[in-house]
Amino acid sequence: MAFCTRCGNRIPDSASFCPGCGAPVINTGGEASGPRFPDSTYEPDSSLVQVFFRMKNRLNRKRYALRILALVTLWVGWMYVVGLATHYAKDPLYSILMTLTTIFYFASFGTFMALGTRRCHDLGKSGLYQLLYFAPMVNFLFFFYLLLAEGQKGSNKYGGDPLDERFKKCF
Known about the structure:
Blueprint: E1 2-3, E2 10-11, H1 48-53, H2 61-88, H3 91-122, H4 138-148
Antiparallel strand pairs: 1-2
């Protein structure tokens, strides 16, 4: 199997140009041309920090959906606690809770971006595609695209396939 030397997309054996970027295919004589991906093995997450904050490697749609669901569940639970506490709290406790909520917001935003970056990597795209989240109405479509689109099979320039049989039991 050949890979484009410019963008890293897969190239069919009969193609003369890359279907992703249009670059001409350079045939090196019998062996497929293209970059050899140095990190072409999937590295499973080994800690909670890696599960939610790592931006390197790939994340399939099932793991992406489960981690987004966990993040949303944490947010709903936190807002419930804050709502109850502010109803019965005095002013100093209210300001402490709002400060903690702000910190929690920025941490969860970082988590959301890290998960989205890894999901983009699974689709063979740069994490910069997440800038689409800042475009009104496009952000919903992009979220559902990340949630529902099937990732690239096999290794790509961002790492090995997360659906490799050896890693089926990883969360």
